[in-house]
Amino acid sequence: MMVASAKADILKGIEMYNNRHLGAINNNASNQNI
User: Taking the mean position of all CA atoms in its chain, how far away is CA 25?
Assistant: First the structure.
């Protein structure tokens, strides 16, 4: 059970990291367009 919850936490962390990373890329792209 602990392995499954750890896996879920890792996936959640990856998702949060990806969201932040994509947000930064989108911000850079919009800044360059201006």
Answer: 11
1 in helix, strand or coil? coil
> What is the secondary structure of 2-34 as a DSSP string?
HHHHHHHHHHHHHHHHHHHHHHHHHHHHHHHH-
Q: What is the pTM of this model?
A: 0.51
Question: How far is it, in rounded angstroms, from Cα 7 to Cα 31?
Answer: 36
Give the integer Cα–Cα distance in Å for 6 and 30: 36
What is the model's pLDDT at position 8? 93
Q: What Rg, from alpha-carbon coordinates, does the chain have? A: 15
